[in-house]
Design brief:
A hairpin with a 2-residue loop joins strand 6 (about 115) and strand 7 (about 120-125). The chain is of the alpha/beta class. Helix 3 (about 45-55) packs across helix 4. The chain has helices spanning about 10-15, 30-35, 45-55, 65-70, 95-100; strands spanning about 5, 20-25, 40, 80, 110, 115, 120-125, 130-135, 140-145. The two termini are about 15 Å apart. The strands form two sheets. A six-stranded parallel β-sheet has the order 1-9-2-5-4-3. A three-stranded antiparallel β-sheet has the order 6-7-8, with no helix packed on it. The chain has five helices and nine strands, in the order βαβαβααβαβββββ.
């Protein structure tokens, strides 16, 4: 079960040692304050680089497989930012589920590209095809607000 904690009430050692995905909705305060030993990756750049290579070969790309290959190049804990491209409806990816799965094997912090509202992580707006809404308590995440 997921939960939300305000940044100023965070017990750093407790939160960072829990085996849950951390979703940073605090405006990158976690990275700036606690995570100097983490490797930061810009996911959009990783995807774009792979798409360019695959486009040149005229093959289709499995985004999840390619992302796993990229992340496996790094050992240790990761901070993942700028992953808006993953919400493209054509990819048919449950973005939060993907990151939760990834966090089973190492500590992952994602810098949420959307917003936290009334206990829900939201991305985009309901009138757009890329809109997503996740109930925090239904997910294995810690949201830092």
């Amino acid at each position: 079960m997921g939960y939300t904690v305000k940044f100023d009430k965070i017990d750093k050692d407790s939160v960072l040692n829990e085996n849950l995905l951390i979703v940073d909705c605090s405006g990158h305060l976690i990275r700036k304050s606690y995570c100097k030993e983490y490797t930061e990756l810009n996911v959009n750049i990783l995807i774009a680089e792979r798409l360019i290579k695959v486009k040149d070969k005229k093959n289709n790309i499995d985004i999840i497989d390619e992302m796993n290959k990229c992340f496996n190049r790094y050992t240790g804990n990761l901070i993942l930012s700028n992953f808006q491209m993953l919400f493209n409806p054509d990819y048919k990816i449950d973005v939060l589920k993907f990151f939760i799965e990834l966090s089973k094997y190492r500590k992952i912090i994602i810098e949420w590209s959307g917003y936290l509202e009334d206990g829900f992580l939201k991305y985009s707006k309901p009138e757009f095809d890329d809109y997503k809404k996740y109930n925090v308590t239904d997910c294995n995440v810690i949201c830092i607000a």
